[in-house]
Structures are given as structure tokens and as C-alpha cells.
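seq as requested:
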Amino acid sequence: MQMKKRIPYFLALAMIFVMSATDLSAQTRIKFARGATSKTVSGTIGVNSGVAGANYRSFVLNVRSGQTISATVSSKNGNVVFTDNDGTSLRYRASYSGDHEINIYNGGARKTTFFFSVLVREKTFPICKI
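C-alpha cells:
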């Protein structure tokens, strides 16, 4: 094969590699059904085998300031945890309105299936007795 004919072939292979690597670290937007406050998603998460982001997944959800975000993650190998606290549960109050990113990673030696659940609650005010 002549060099000129090989260039498109190599460019196509390079694009496939870049697109697959980008997909591994892609963010998943969490959208709630109308009236719903929770959602569970599942998928697979790889291991860090030299591919940047292969063992990480990101989830993005849009919330309002003051809402409480509670999330849990579980996996078949027990090695998938949140990057914020190395735990399987996370809870915090949103300090701003807009997109919030929650990241998980697989610390195990094998690719695994995970389950990610998130619950968003409105700001609650204490009940005052008069």
C-alpha cells in the first residue's frame, strides 16, 4: 500500500481511539421524570489500565440552592466508591443553583457493574411551635 493511501486509514483508526477514550470518561446527565425526586442508574466501570478515566464515571444533575443531595453507589466487587469521600454514600446541601458533578471510581482490579442512586430533596425548615 502506498503511503498516501495509508494516511486516511491511520486517521480513521486514530479517530476511533479518541472517540472510545472520550466515551470512557463521559459524563452522564441525570434527569428526573416530572415529579420524581430520585433516580437509579447502572452501568459498567473499568479499571485503570493505562487509559485515562477508564475507572471513573461522572454524573451531573441540576439542582437548586439549598436542596439536599443524597447519593449511594454499590458494585458487584464492592470497590466502587465516591471520589469525594472514598465511601459508598454521599450527602450534602447544594450551596448554589445549577449543575453539580458527582464522581465515582473503581478501585478494584477488574471491570464491574455498579448501581448509582441519587435523591434530591427540597430545603426543609424546622417546625416551630407557637
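Helices lie at 3-24.
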